[in-house]
Amino acid sequence: MLVREPLVENIFTTDFANSPLVSQRLPRAESGTYETVSVIDHTPRIIGYQAVPGLPLVVVLGYARADVLATWYRHVYTFGALTPWWCWSWCWAPSS
User: pTM (2 decimals)?
Assistant: First the structure.
């Protein structure tokens, strides 16, 4: 691990050999995305990775699943609540 933000105290003592990326994903593809629970902070994350050709290096970027889907959930709550009203007013409301 070269860089992580925010810094976690156990980052340099964590063994990544059994992580889903090293044990399952990299043997099948040099790049990709997947969802997993982080071995560092135990947060559900969406992970993207790319192996660097010619180097023993993998670039990994992960976002918390909740952060990625926050805007989508906000839309679902807003429009999901309004949809029944809209359907009623469009289909069954008296015409003027």
Answer: 0.65
- Token readout for 95 is 């015409």
**Tens digit of pLDDT for each residue in 41-82?**
889 999 999 999 999 889 999 899 999 999 988 888 888 878
Q: CA 49 → CA 26, 32, 34, 52, 80, distances in Å?
A: 9, 6, 9, 10, 34
Handedness of CA 27, 29, 31, 32 (dihedral sign): negative
Which residues, other chains included, contact 65 with Cβ-Cβ below 8 Å and sequence gap of 6+? 35, 43, 44, 45, 46
All structural domains of the chain with their residue ranges:
9-65
Instruction: Residue count of the chain, please give it.
Output: 96
CATH code linked to domain 9-65: 3.30.450.20
